[in-house]
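Lecture notes, continued. The same structure-token format from the folding unit now serves as the input rather than the output. Read the line below as a description of shape only.
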């Protein structure tokens, strides 16, 4: 009988401690602010050929027979070749009609700067080779971009060059789920 009394006493004491801690915890019990919007981050970058030929990246491969486009590019702050490199853009796209909605059409953006460290995954659905502007979906990220969602707009900056050598302006509009800290930008 004594073990049962000790057990019941321990359970009641544990319940009281949990209630006491919940009432006196330092976490704010205020309601959410009147602005329930989540933090946004807007970036404007450029995707262009790496300017170092010995970078180890093969040139972009466009296989017209197979219909695949594999690329490795540099992410820069500006459209000039001398702009600061902030990361890499790598991807694999199959622009054939029955693969156009495939989850395999992904562009990975990797950031290597003091401000941002991490990567973003952009899903390239409904890719149309003849459009000068593509609006794609950001489906996730890591590091500074953990759980990011949003849109990525690709615009070819020079219509005179071929698609393999083209420079693209990349505008990112990202939203982050329920972060309490503010995001620079």
């Amino acid at each position: 009988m004594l073990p049962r009394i000790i057990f019941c006493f321990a359970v009641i004491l544990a319940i009281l401690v949990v209630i006491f801690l919940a009432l006196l915890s330092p976490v704010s019990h205020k309601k959410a602010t009147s602005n329930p919007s989540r933090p946004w981050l807007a970036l404007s970058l450029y995707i262009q050929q790496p300017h170092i030929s010995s970078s180890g990246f093969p040139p972009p491969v466009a296989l017209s027979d197979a219909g695949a486009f594999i690329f490795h590019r540099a992410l820069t702050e500006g459209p000039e070749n001398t702009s600061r490199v902030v990361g890499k853009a790598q991807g694999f796209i199959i622009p054939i009609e029955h693969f156009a909605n495939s989850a395999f059409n992904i562009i990975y953006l990797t950031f290597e700067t003091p401000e941002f460290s991490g990567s973003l995954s952009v899903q390239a659905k409904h890719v149309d080779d003849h459009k000068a502007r593509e609006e794609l979906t950001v489906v996730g990220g890591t590091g500074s971009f953990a759980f990011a969602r949003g849109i990525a707009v690709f615009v070819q900056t020079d219509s005179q060059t071929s698609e393999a050598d083209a420079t693209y302006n990349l505008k990112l509009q990202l939203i982050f789920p329920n972060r309490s800290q503010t995001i620079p930008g």
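Point for the exam: The chain has a mean pLDDT of 76.
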